[in-house]
């Protein structure tokens, strides 16, 4: 393991999470900025976003890659709700949408207090059906990943969509640029990345909050920061370890915030998800390509 150039081991606990003989496999190349991977166990496929090309792609284990949706309205982050439906963050529409089983699209959120959202970025779903998403300005900074525009919201917030009423509430309002987010396996904590502006003189770390009554956040505190690049998308495994995108690959942090190790990836990583029949295969979106690698652990996200 120590001799494998794929891994950068910082803590012996990392050895129990990765496979020494595993290979980093490039599944597809040809994106302009790959993002938002989401695994569909029931359909045995991976979907992801290619934001500047305004399309969503689909990969199946036989190696087939096809276009899932084009135009995509510059979709970025994706997840699934508890009914298995696709939930997406659209830069182009500045909204969060749900793809119904018949293929139609339902708008879940596109405004807050009568003003348009900035550009929803990443999204997770709580077991109570509440949908939580981040709303930085990356999709309106230029025409490359959306449509250039002035923000209407005075702050870059994290929101929750109530599953019963559909009401949109801001749960955090003090981020510079909120980005990736994920619940702990027991949903008592929510991790949220603040990627700042991409510059190191502003916040560029992951914070963690206590989840109160499934609806609110409390006790904000620093969790970790990266020594290469800035945190974008991330996922949690069944043991509560956080696997995050980084400038030099994937970084893995223990629940106490210790950097356990890295998986080196030849391109800047944007996001990742666990998938495969046993959720032990890490799928990684990295600039132009999608990679995968098998691990000894399993992803905590469902379905």
TrEMBL record:
<dbReference type="InterPro" id="IPR011042">
    <property type="entry name" value="6-blade_b-propeller_TolB-like"/>
</dbReference>
<keyword id="KW-0378">Hydrolase</keyword>
<dbReference type="InterPro" id="IPR013658">
    <property type="entry name" value="SGL"/>
</dbReference>
<dbReference type="Pfam" id="PF08450">
    <property type="entry name" value="SGL"/>
</dbReference>
<feature type="domain" description="SMP-30/Gluconolactonase/LRE-like region">
    <location>
        <begin position="33"/>
        <end position="287"/>
    </location>
</feature>
<protein>
    <submittedName>
        <fullName>SMP-30/gluconolactonase/LRE family protein</fullName>
    </submittedName>
</protein>
<dbReference type="InterPro" id="IPR051262">
    <property type="entry name" value="SMP-30/CGR1_Lactonase"/>
</dbReference>
<dbReference type="InterPro" id="IPR005511">
    <property type="entry name" value="SMP-30"/>
</dbReference>
